[in-house]
Amino acid sequence: MHRSDVLIIGAGPTGLVLALWLSKLGVHVRIVDKTSAPGTTSRAVAVQARTLELYRQLDLAEAVVENGHQVKGGNFWVKGEAVARLPLSRIGEGLTPYAFLEIFPQDQHERLLIERLASFGISVERNTELLGFEQTADGISATLRLPDGEQETCQACYIAGCDGARSIVRKTLDTGFPGGTYQQIFYVADVQGSGPAFNGELHVDLDEADFLAVFPLAAEGRARLIGTVRDERAEHAETLRFEDVSSRAIDNMKVQIDQLNWFSTYRVHHRVADHFRGGRAFLLGDAAHVHSPAGGQGMNTGIGDAINLAWKLAAVLSGGAEARLLDTYETERIAFARKLVSTTDRVFTFATAEGRLADLLRTRLAPFVIPKLASFEASREFLFRTVSQITLNYRGMPLSSGVAGHVHGGDRLPWAHDGEGDNFESLKCPTWQVHVYGDTSDEMIAWCNEHHLPLHVFDWRPAFDTAGLGRNGFYLLRPDTYVAIAETCSDPKVIERYFRDHGIRAFFSEA
């Protein structure tokens, strides 16, 4: 009987990243997908800075940046004219190694992940569908329908539902998926074209006409169009062709389409599952939360789910942590998902609302306010911090403790870079580690050596103060580079107590 440590259902970016991280950490995975091939008509295009930071741990960030496209500006159109421009080329400068908006379409993204997964000897089992599963005291028993129509019963310690908004894993868990569906029908089209909106930047139409956004792709003259379908045509979305889509916004932005590569329509939902875990089963990505495309958050949030869960599953499966560590997955990720759905819902509603007041806000107020806000560094930084997900934190949650400098337990470790180096270099290794900025005690050095916990001591410099890091204390970092402990002292007993309290056995032996 086929047995794995983790059975992953669904091979979109979330499932693939989970499989990659687990494989790197030595976990035996099996990943299945009911489709015959990777998707080719995906609408997710943005890879946020926080995702790129985490991708350094799999040596993926460079490949994404090299093969994607950096957007230098966002332009807003009203009545056939570009009325405001938001500079994006270095909008997050000093905050992250990836201080830009990166466009790397999901279909290319999936191909890259599949290629890297193959280097671990793992391939996606296609045309393989989960029919259901049962939980036992020591694992999962799942029934799969294989490509030849035969059924197979397989065993796993855990099952991960990365199988989208219609998740069979979620339905089997019988957990609620409250929320709703927006009335608009959206289309996405991959095109070759020309015109001022094909200058390699992002363009958004704010008119009272149809919503339209033009996302540049790496190839010259190629772009991804995302727009709305209004009026009576929305009632027949499944049979719509690109020729049926209103050309008002396209004409307003002077878009000349030379070739249509593909076209698809979809509805947008806003939902968050009541629970992200049921025993040995977990929900990730669209199986756990779906939201509007505003801000390019969906795919990145699913990838964040995968990374959060991966190191915890690996720790438990290796015997390095008690099973209660897995309780923190839902606690940490569901709070962010709920906040994200609420935020993107407000942005999406503003961008697509109909009526005279909404039109006035978009066409009169927004063109005036956007340039004003863009002129302030603080406004640009706030926008970048929010969209890039570098402000996502787990403050006040069970695995987070303390404050040192401006950094709290649960925060992403701030990036500090100057001519002398980069404090993120050691984060490429997905393991627990300690960072000290300044001086530390002999006891800390001895304890970390004895317990094989990597300790990185950085001579104090102004860049650390600028980043908000505390001097002469320490930061215990989780394998996903979030701060577990932020502490002003240099007493290793604080670390030992933390590991004991949380049932993490990797760094101490039982007396």
Automatic annotation (TrEMBL):
PANTHER family: BINDING MONOOXYGENASE, PUTATIVE (JCVI)-RELATED, TRK SYSTEM POTASSIUM UPTAKE PROTEIN. The lineage of its organism: Bacteria, Pseudomonadati, Pseudomonadota, Gammaproteobacteria, Pseudomonadales. Keywords: FAD, Flavoprotein. GO terms for molecular function: FAD binding; oxidoreductase activity, acting on paired donors, with incorporation or reduction of molecular oxygen, NAD(P)H as one donor, and incorporation of one atom of oxygen. The keyword Flavoprotein applies. It comes from the Bacteria. It holds the Pfam family FAD_binding_3. InterPro entries: FAD-bd, FAD/NAD-bd_sf, RIFMO-like. Residues 4-342 form the FAD-binding domain. This is FAD-dependent oxidoreductase. Its cofactor is FAD.
